[in-house]
Amino acid sequence: MNLTQEDWVSQFETDENAVILDVRTEAEFNEGIIANAINIDIHLGQGFISEIEALDKTKNYYVYCRSGMRSGKACEIMNELGFENAFNLVGGIIEWDGEVVAP
Length: 103
Fold this sequence. Notes:
The chain is an alpha/beta fold. 33% of the residues lie in helices and 17% in strands. The chain has helices at residues 5-13, 26-30, 46-53, 69-80, and strands spanning 2-3, 18-22, 38-39, 60-64, 86-89. Helix 2 (26-30) links the parallel strand 2 and strand 3. The protein starts with a strand and ends in a 14-residue tail after the last strand.
């Protein structure tokens, strides 16, 4: 499900079961992240699938990338793997108005 930054943040902040997932490359991740994000690079192919399948499906995942394209694809993959709640940040980190921190 695609969410605007406002909806993504307001939903995340009230979600006790939330996990922030950054699907960018390690190099991009190291340039700065949304606080507390975990990194699983969507470009890892089967490695990405394996790491996603190891995640807790009862959690709610707030997913972002640079522009929102890769994270949208990641949410689709997660839905196919049985994750009910994967939320894509429309516009990605390049349109992010909030704080960006070092990983």
